[in-house]
Design a protein that fits this description.
The chain contains 12 helices and 16 strands. It is an alpha+beta fold. The chain folds into 3 domains: 6-42 and 118-276, Rossmann fold; 52-115, no CATH class; 291-365. It has an 8-stranded antiparallel barrel with strand order 9-10-11-12-13-14-15-16.
Length: 366
């Protein structure tokens, strides 16, 4: 394999970054290579910021002094880096909500990193990338697969604030400098016609999804002179497309672009594997035990049926065998391990509590 500890997948939304991140992970692990796929909404998220508050060290000390009743909790769940301190809000909501009164929680939300001005965001983001790179370098035997991080997340942040492409590229170049020692390899998925990707996204996820994304971010400066609703988000994607293509061409490391319009995924997969120096390994012949499984503490239910599951949110997801009793979950970094009429969640966690690593589901029916 290429001498790389970091594989990056980038491209517009709905070009297959998530699907192919999982595919690459499976193929690497079948070659005996230890991997970790860092999903866009992985938790903890080592390079991005979702549902996360952050402080400089001085701000953190001031907050602890002003809200001493939650000091022990914050000390327990905070990630302290060289220049910053970050706290995942999901951990508070899931495990400590009754310990935070409304005044304290509202004060905490004032430090939501997504709402930081761009200069302060840069400080936090670069600190996080440096910390991540150090952790990776200390674990030389593992390959990390990261999707939608070095380009996509940064484009959203900078484009929303109407920052220039030059400022965005300068910042991404700083991230590239940080990860250079990891010998990153970049896979860029795209359709030559950006409108085709926009049409595919709308067809695949529905106009309501585009409307939702517009409503979520409509107060951002970018949208002040743009159409409302789904049309506004479509314009955002057009501008996104121009930026992401330029960022790929400026990327200085190992890289491969893959035009996906023809949908010839077997050939594209082979091209990715060849680029990474990995041979394709066929699927393992295994079948997960069908049934209904329940987490008794929280009441979550997983239904297993013919190498698919219906997760507690009702979403159907395919299962791919990892071993005779372990199965990768489609679209997620989660692995389900079947043990004596029980499912144990393994792999990496996302921001949905049902996927908490180590959570157990007992079989309660067929």
């Amino acid at each position: 394999m290429i001498d790389s500890q970091l594989i990056l997948l980038e491209g517009m939304p709905s070009v297959g970054k998530t699907t192919n991140s999982r595919f690459i992970q499976i193929q690497l692990e079948r070659q005996g290579i230890e991997t970790e796929w860092i999903h866009e909404v992985a938790m903890p998220q080592p390079v991005l910021f979702f549902d996360e508050v952050g402080f400089t060290h001085n701000e953190y000390e001031d907050f602890i002094q002003e809200h001493p009743a939650v000091a022990d909790i914050l000390e327990k769940i905070s990630v302290i880096r060289k220049n910053t301190v970050c706290v995942n809000l999901n951990l508070i909501q899931w495990y400590y909500k009754d310990k935070f009164d409304q005044t304290t929680y509202r004060a905490l939300l004032q430090f939501d990193i997504w709402k930081f001005p761009i200069e302060k965001y840069k400080l936090f983001a670069l600190d996080k990338w440096r910390y991540f790179a150090e952790q990776v370098l200390n674990n030389e035997s593992k390959v990390y697969i990261v999707d939608s991080a070095i380009f996509q997340y940064q484009i959203f942040r900078f484009l929303f604030e109407n920052k220039s492409y030059e400022e965005l590229q300068n910042f991404v170049s700083q991230i590239e400098d940080i990860i250079r020692a990891l010998h990153p390899s970049l896979l860029f998925l795209y359709r030559e016609n950006a409108e085709a990707t926009i049409d595919y996204l709308e067809k695949d996820r529905g106009t309501s999804y585009l409307e939702y994304l517009y409503q979520r971010d409509k107060n951002q400066p970018y949208y002040r002179d743009k159409p409302g609703g789904a049309e506004g988000f479509k314009q955002f994607l057009r501008d996104y497309s121009l930026m992401v293509g330029r960022l790929f061409h400026s990327f200085a490391g190992n890289k491969l672009s893959l035009e996906i319009s023809k949908g010839n995924w077997i050939d594209l997969e082979d091209e990715m594997l060849s680029f990474l120096g990995v041979k394709r390994t066929p699927n393992i012949d295994a079948c997960a035990p069908n049934g209904i499984y329940k987490n008794r503490e929280l009441g979550y239910i997983i239904k297993v049926e013919n190498l698919s599951i219906f997760d507690p949110n009702g979403t159907e997801r395919k299962l791919t065998p990892k071993s005779q009793n372990e199965f990768y979950v489609d679209w997620l970094p989660v692995i389900l391990r079947f043990e004596n009429d029980r499912i144990v969640v393994a792999g990496s966690q996302i921001g949905d509590r049902w996927s908490t690593t180590g959570m157990q589901y007992d079989k309660v029916g067929l």
